[in-house]
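Project standup — Tuesday

K.O.: blocked on the structure for the chain from last sprint. Re-posting the sequence here as requested.
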Amino acid sequence: MRRFVYFINPISGTKNKDVLLELIKKRTSKENIPFEILHTNAEGDYIYLVEKIKYENITDVIICGGDGTVNQLAASLLGVDVNIGIIPMGSGNGLALAAGIPRNPNKALDIIFKGNSALIDSFYINEKFSCMLCGLGFDAQVAHDFAKQKKRGLATYIKQTIKNFVNAKTYNFVLKMNDVTVTTEAFFISIANSNQFGNNVTIAPKASISDGLIDIVIVSKMSKMKLLYTIAKQIAAGEPDISHSKKYKPEDIYYYQAKKISIENPDKAPFHIDGDPATTSKSFEIRVVEKAFRLLQP
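H.V.: unblocked you, prediction finished:
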């Protein structure tokens, strides 16, 4: 028999949590699945959960929140024999959308009750866990500023993105991967297991959550108009521009895939993990974790 624990992040996104609670209670009871509803905590402290899963025979942990909430709970459950489900409630929901999980709670619950799960990858960056996407530079500064806002949601995120774009600056980086060294001045670097920032804005078109590889996207120094055009072109085309592979061109978006990466960050560009602001460092070591946890998906 399946047994669920739902975790609801009370501050993620803008959706009505009371409506979601009633929906969860109604639909899970109809499926005759024993369940419990708990709140997430800001500290990400879920040490107790491993023992709870073991002694209460919990089969599924369902996360009602965004990528940051998924990160915290998935990190706590590595190596634990449990399914993880997502009801997307964040501002971006990058991992859920990359896995084909819809934003609509009813449709997300359909997938959860069906019970199809598959192992997906994650990665460590300076031994900190990421299930989806890390960033250095522009998008990380947006994440830091967004976290300070009282009002959440997509509209607030867009506002902060526009505000930061006007004042965006470049940072110096040195990256080493696959016996290749790239020295560049860039607006931002994305280290991706998922193919998108969220909201179906694809930044790493080749990325897969289960291919055993990390995708690295480097958006180099260029004019602001060129920056807009180049990113829009990549998002619209759904594939990376790989014209840089033979010769370095500052206007290119660089795109690589690897199992591990080293990044030197002498300017200490801002940093985020799965959309949540994090403390930056002058250097980063990144390695993929293959088949990290089981995700309920279509």
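K.O.: great, moving the ticket to review. The CA atoms of residues 133 and 192 lie 4 Å apart. The chain has a mean pLDDT of 88.
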